[in-house]
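Repro:
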Amino acid sequence: MKEEPKKGYSYKDVKDQGERWEAIYGVPYLTASPSYKHQSIVGELYLYLAPLF
């Protein structure tokens, strides 16, 4: 008996959902927005690392 292939999702399938969806290996994931703390840390890292480049 031959198994039917599973339908995977692509970026095209999830891009117009109005939220932050990603398709990873055909599986759709709803991702959270970065928190204020995360953005603050990334900003500090940028300011520290930018002069090195």
